[in-house]
Amino acid sequence: MMRRNSSLISDGGFLLLFIACFVSILFTARDPNLYLYNIIFLNVAFLIAIITYFTTITTGLILNILFVFGYGTFTIYRTVVQGDVVTVQSYFWLFMTPVFTAVTWMFTQASKQLQEQNDMLTKKNASLATMDENTNLKNMLSFQKDTTVFMALSDRYKIPLTLLVLNVKYWHELRRMIGEEQLNAAVYNITTISQTSIRANDSLYMLSQDNPTWGLLLFTDRGGADIVMNRLRSRLVEINESERSSRNRFELNLKMGAYEYNPEETPTPLEWIARARKELEYDV
Predict the structure, then answer these.
(1) Is the pTM of this model over 0.85?
(2) How far is CA 178 from CA 76, 171, 173, 249, in A?
(3) Do residue 106 and residue 200 come from a single domain?
(4) Which residue positions in the chain have pLDDT lower than 50?
(5) Whose C-alpha in 76, 115, 135, 182 is 20 to 30 A from the C-alpha of 196?
(6) Buried b / exposed e across 63-88, counting CB within 10 Å, b at 16+?
Protein backbone atom coordinates (compact mmCIF):
# COMPACT_ATOMS: atom_id res chain seq x y z
CA MET A 1 0.00 0.00 0.00
CA MET A 2 2.79 2.42 0.91
CA ARG A 3 4.60 1.70 -2.37
CA ARG A 4 1.37 2.29 -4.29
CA ASN A 5 0.77 5.64 -2.55
CA SER A 6 4.33 6.77 -3.31
CA SER A 7 3.85 5.80 -6.95
CA LEU A 8 0.59 7.77 -7.17
CA ILE A 9 2.18 10.85 -5.55
CA SER A 10 5.16 10.60 -7.91
CA ASP A 11 2.89 10.32 -10.96
CA GLY A 12 0.69 13.15 -9.66
CA GLY A 13 3.69 15.41 -9.08
CA PHE A 14 5.05 14.65 -12.55
CA LEU A 15 1.66 15.45 -14.15
CA LEU A 16 1.27 18.69 -12.16
CA LEU A 17 4.76 19.75 -13.22
CA PHE A 18 3.76 19.34 -16.87
CA ILE A 19 0.57 21.33 -16.30
CA ALA A 20 2.47 24.12 -14.51
CA CYS A 21 4.99 24.27 -17.39
CA PHE A 22 2.16 24.37 -19.96
CA VAL A 23 0.31 27.19 -18.14
CA SER A 24 3.51 29.19 -17.69
CA ILE A 25 4.49 28.86 -21.37
CA LEU A 26 1.03 29.98 -22.49
CA PHE A 27 1.16 32.95 -20.13
CA THR A 28 4.67 33.85 -21.30
CA ALA A 29 3.70 33.74 -25.00
CA ARG A 30 0.42 35.68 -24.71
CA ASP A 31 1.96 39.16 -24.75
CA PRO A 32 4.95 39.76 -27.08
CA ASN A 33 5.71 43.06 -25.33
CA LEU A 34 6.34 41.24 -22.02
CA TYR A 35 8.02 38.20 -23.57
CA LEU A 36 11.53 38.89 -22.27
CA TYR A 37 10.15 39.91 -18.87
CA ASN A 38 8.21 36.64 -18.51
CA ILE A 39 11.09 34.51 -19.82
CA ILE A 40 13.34 35.88 -17.08
CA PHE A 41 10.86 35.03 -14.32
CA LEU A 42 10.12 31.63 -15.87
CA ASN A 43 13.84 30.84 -15.72
CA VAL A 44 13.98 32.00 -12.11
CA ALA A 45 11.06 29.68 -11.26
CA PHE A 46 12.81 26.77 -13.00
CA LEU A 47 16.10 27.54 -11.26
CA ILE A 48 14.49 27.52 -7.79
CA ALA A 49 12.68 24.26 -8.66
CA ILE A 50 15.96 22.63 -9.78
CA ILE A 51 17.74 23.74 -6.63
CA THR A 52 14.87 22.31 -4.57
CA TYR A 53 15.16 19.01 -6.46
CA PHE A 54 18.84 18.60 -5.58
CA THR A 55 18.62 20.00 -2.03
CA THR A 56 15.63 20.19 0.33
CA ILE A 57 12.23 21.85 0.54
CA THR A 58 13.65 24.18 3.20
CA THR A 59 16.14 25.61 0.71
CA GLY A 60 13.33 25.98 -1.83
CA LEU A 61 11.12 27.83 0.66
CA ILE A 62 13.93 30.22 1.61
CA LEU A 63 14.60 30.98 -2.06
CA ASN A 64 10.88 31.52 -2.66
CA ILE A 65 10.66 33.93 0.28
CA LEU A 66 13.60 35.87 -1.13
CA PHE A 67 11.98 35.84 -4.58
CA VAL A 68 8.60 37.03 -3.25
CA PHE A 69 10.30 39.78 -1.26
CA GLY A 70 12.40 40.89 -4.24
CA TYR A 71 9.56 40.66 -6.75
CA GLY A 72 7.15 42.41 -4.37
CA THR A 73 9.63 45.24 -3.87
CA PHE A 74 10.10 45.50 -7.65
CA THR A 75 6.31 45.62 -8.18
CA ILE A 76 5.83 48.31 -5.51
CA TYR A 77 8.64 50.35 -7.10
CA ARG A 78 7.00 50.18 -10.52
CA THR A 79 3.60 51.04 -9.07
CA VAL A 80 4.68 53.95 -6.85
CA VAL A 81 7.57 55.45 -8.77
CA GLN A 82 6.67 54.65 -12.39
CA GLY A 83 2.90 54.71 -11.94
CA ASP A 84 2.25 51.25 -13.41
CA VAL A 85 -1.11 49.58 -12.79
CA VAL A 86 -1.16 46.33 -10.77
CA THR A 87 -2.44 43.61 -13.13
CA VAL A 88 -2.59 39.81 -13.34
CA GLN A 89 0.98 40.00 -14.62
CA SER A 90 2.08 41.27 -11.22
CA TYR A 91 0.57 38.32 -9.32
CA PHE A 92 1.15 35.43 -11.71
CA TRP A 93 4.81 34.76 -10.90
CA LEU A 94 4.23 35.36 -7.20
CA PHE A 95 1.87 32.39 -7.41
CA MET A 96 3.54 30.14 -10.00
CA THR A 97 7.09 30.17 -8.61
CA PRO A 98 6.05 28.58 -5.27
CA VAL A 99 3.84 26.16 -7.26
CA PHE A 100 6.87 24.97 -9.26
CA THR A 101 8.80 24.50 -6.03
CA ALA A 102 5.98 22.60 -4.28
CA VAL A 103 5.31 20.30 -7.25
CA THR A 104 9.02 19.57 -7.69
CA TRP A 105 9.36 18.74 -4.00
CA MET A 106 6.31 16.46 -4.14
CA PHE A 107 7.72 14.57 -7.14
CA THR A 108 11.19 14.38 -5.57
CA GLN A 109 9.97 13.07 -2.21
CA ALA A 110 7.82 10.40 -3.81
CA SER A 111 10.69 9.33 -6.10
CA LYS A 112 13.07 9.08 -3.15
CA GLN A 113 10.57 6.97 -1.21
CA LEU A 114 10.18 4.64 -4.19
CA GLN A 115 13.98 4.35 -4.49
CA GLU A 116 14.34 3.58 -0.77
CA GLN A 117 11.57 0.98 -0.95
CA ASN A 118 13.19 -0.57 -4.02
CA ASP A 119 16.58 -0.75 -2.29
CA MET A 120 14.96 -2.30 0.79
CA LEU A 121 13.15 -4.92 -1.32
CA THR A 122 16.34 -5.68 -3.25
CA LYS A 123 18.29 -6.25 -0.03
CA LYS A 124 15.46 -8.32 1.43
CA ASN A 125 15.26 -10.42 -1.72
CA ALA A 126 19.03 -10.97 -1.69
CA SER A 127 18.96 -12.03 1.96
CA LEU A 128 16.10 -14.49 1.38
CA ALA A 129 17.17 -15.85 -2.01
CA THR A 130 18.27 -19.48 -1.93
CA MET A 131 19.28 -19.77 -5.60
CA ASP A 132 22.26 -18.30 -7.41
CA GLU A 133 20.86 -16.08 -10.20
CA ASN A 134 23.61 -16.92 -12.72
CA THR A 135 23.79 -20.70 -12.41
CA ASN A 136 20.41 -21.55 -10.81
CA LEU A 137 22.32 -23.54 -8.19
CA LYS A 138 21.53 -23.42 -4.50
CA ASN A 139 23.58 -20.70 -2.80
CA MET A 140 25.34 -20.31 0.54
CA LEU A 141 22.11 -19.58 2.43
CA SER A 142 20.52 -22.75 1.10
CA PHE A 143 23.72 -24.69 1.87
CA GLN A 144 23.62 -23.70 5.52
CA LYS A 145 19.95 -24.65 5.85
CA ASP A 146 20.37 -28.01 4.10
CA THR A 147 23.62 -28.89 5.83
CA THR A 148 22.13 -28.42 9.28
CA VAL A 149 19.54 -31.08 8.43
CA PHE A 150 22.07 -33.44 6.81
CA MET A 151 24.45 -33.14 9.74
CA ALA A 152 21.65 -34.12 12.11
CA LEU A 153 20.80 -37.11 9.92
CA SER A 154 24.45 -38.12 9.79
CA ASP A 155 24.70 -37.99 13.59
CA ARG A 156 21.53 -39.98 14.10
CA TYR A 157 21.93 -42.70 11.48
CA LYS A 158 25.75 -42.73 11.21
CA ILE A 159 25.65 -41.84 7.50
CA PRO A 160 29.04 -40.70 6.13
CA LEU A 161 28.90 -37.17 4.77
CA THR A 162 31.68 -35.37 2.92
CA LEU A 163 31.91 -31.81 1.62
CA LEU A 164 33.86 -31.41 -1.62
CA VAL A 165 34.86 -27.83 -2.46
CA LEU A 166 36.30 -26.83 -5.82
CA ASN A 167 37.25 -23.68 -7.65
CA VAL A 168 39.19 -22.65 -10.76
CA LYS A 169 42.95 -22.31 -10.56
CA TYR A 170 44.27 -18.85 -11.50
CA TRP A 171 40.73 -17.44 -11.79
CA HIS A 172 41.77 -13.82 -11.30
CA GLU A 173 44.45 -14.16 -13.98
CA LEU A 174 41.90 -15.67 -16.36
CA ARG A 175 39.53 -12.75 -15.76
CA ARG A 176 42.18 -10.37 -17.04
CA MET A 177 42.96 -12.45 -20.14
CA ILE A 178 39.56 -13.55 -21.46
CA GLY A 179 36.15 -11.98 -21.96
CA GLU A 180 33.05 -12.14 -19.83
CA GLU A 181 31.31 -14.47 -22.27
CA GLN A 182 34.13 -17.03 -22.03
CA LEU A 183 34.15 -16.75 -18.23
CA ASN A 184 30.43 -17.47 -18.13
CA ALA A 185 30.99 -20.45 -20.45
CA ALA A 186 33.70 -21.73 -18.08
CA VAL A 187 31.37 -21.46 -15.07
CA TYR A 188 28.65 -23.24 -17.03
CA ASN A 189 31.01 -26.07 -18.06
CA ILE A 190 32.21 -26.67 -14.51
CA THR A 191 28.65 -26.59 -13.21
CA THR A 192 27.61 -29.11 -15.84
CA ILE A 193 30.43 -31.58 -15.17
CA SER A 194 29.83 -31.24 -11.42
CA GLN A 195 26.14 -32.03 -11.82
CA THR A 196 26.84 -35.06 -14.02
CA SER A 197 29.58 -36.39 -11.73
CA ILE A 198 27.47 -36.83 -8.61
CA ARG A 199 24.58 -39.08 -7.70
CA ALA A 200 20.95 -37.97 -7.59
CA ASN A 201 20.89 -37.80 -3.77
CA ASP A 202 24.03 -35.63 -3.60
CA SER A 203 23.71 -31.82 -3.73
CA LEU A 204 25.59 -29.12 -5.63
CA TYR A 205 25.88 -25.52 -4.37
CA MET A 206 27.42 -22.26 -5.58
CA LEU A 207 29.21 -21.06 -2.45
CA SER A 208 30.78 -17.92 -3.93
CA GLN A 209 30.40 -15.89 -7.14
CA ASP A 210 33.36 -13.50 -6.83
CA ASN A 211 35.86 -16.32 -7.11
CA PRO A 212 33.47 -19.07 -8.28
CA THR A 213 33.50 -21.82 -5.67
CA TRP A 214 31.29 -24.88 -5.85
CA GLY A 215 30.36 -27.11 -2.95
CA LEU A 216 29.34 -30.74 -3.44
CA LEU A 217 27.62 -32.36 -0.49
CA LEU A 218 28.26 -36.08 -0.90
CA PHE A 219 26.67 -38.93 1.00
CA THR A 220 29.92 -40.85 1.12
CA ASP A 221 33.14 -41.08 3.07
CA ARG A 222 36.48 -39.45 2.22
CA GLY A 223 37.41 -42.32 -0.09
CA GLY A 224 34.20 -41.89 -2.06
CA ALA A 225 34.96 -38.17 -2.41
CA ASP A 226 38.31 -39.08 -4.01
CA ILE A 227 36.44 -41.09 -6.63
CA VAL A 228 34.25 -38.06 -7.41
CA MET A 229 37.34 -35.81 -7.66
CA ASN A 230 39.00 -38.21 -10.12
CA ARG A 231 35.78 -38.28 -12.14
CA LEU A 232 35.71 -34.48 -12.25
CA ARG A 233 39.34 -34.28 -13.35
CA SER A 234 38.71 -36.82 -16.13
CA ARG A 235 35.70 -34.87 -17.40
CA LEU A 236 37.68 -31.64 -17.32
CA VAL A 237 40.50 -33.23 -19.33
CA GLU A 238 37.92 -34.25 -21.94
CA ILE A 239 36.60 -30.70 -22.16
CA ASN A 240 40.11 -29.23 -22.48
CA GLU A 241 40.92 -31.76 -25.22
CA SER A 242 37.74 -30.92 -27.14
CA GLU A 243 38.55 -27.21 -26.91
CA ARG A 244 42.17 -27.63 -27.96
CA SER A 245 41.47 -26.67 -31.57
CA SER A 246 39.44 -23.63 -30.59
CA ARG A 247 40.88 -20.28 -31.62
CA ASN A 248 40.16 -18.64 -28.27
CA ARG A 249 41.04 -21.69 -26.24
CA PHE A 250 42.06 -21.45 -22.64
CA GLU A 251 42.68 -24.36 -20.33
CA LEU A 252 40.63 -24.88 -17.19
CA ASN A 253 42.20 -26.40 -14.11
CA LEU A 254 40.46 -27.08 -10.82
CA LYS A 255 41.56 -27.00 -7.22
CA MET A 256 39.67 -29.47 -5.06
CA GLY A 257 39.47 -30.17 -1.37
CA ALA A 258 37.26 -32.53 0.60
CA TYR A 259 36.57 -32.93 4.28
CA GLU A 260 34.43 -35.60 5.91
CA TYR A 261 31.88 -34.47 8.47
CA ASN A 262 32.94 -34.88 12.07
CA PRO A 263 30.65 -33.55 14.85
CA GLU A 264 33.61 -32.52 16.99
CA GLU A 265 35.76 -30.90 14.28
CA THR A 266 32.97 -29.43 12.13
CA PRO A 267 30.06 -28.61 14.47
CA THR A 268 28.67 -25.89 12.15
CA PRO A 269 28.28 -25.53 8.35
CA LEU A 270 30.67 -22.55 8.25
CA GLU A 271 33.33 -24.46 10.17
CA TRP A 272 32.89 -27.34 7.75
CA ILE A 273 33.38 -25.05 4.75
CA ALA A 274 36.48 -23.55 6.37
CA ARG A 275 37.97 -27.03 6.87
CA ALA A 276 37.19 -28.02 3.27
CA ARG A 277 38.67 -24.76 1.91
CA LYS A 278 41.80 -25.47 3.90
CA GLU A 279 42.16 -28.72 1.95
CA LEU A 280 42.27 -26.66 -1.27
CA GLU A 281 45.70 -25.39 -0.26
CA TYR A 282 47.14 -28.89 -0.60
CA ASP A 283 45.89 -29.28 -4.18
CA VAL A 284 48.62 -27.62 -6.21
Answers:
(1) no
(2) 72, 10, 9, 10
(3) no
(4) 127
(5) 182
(6) bbeebeeebeeebeeeeeeeeeeeee
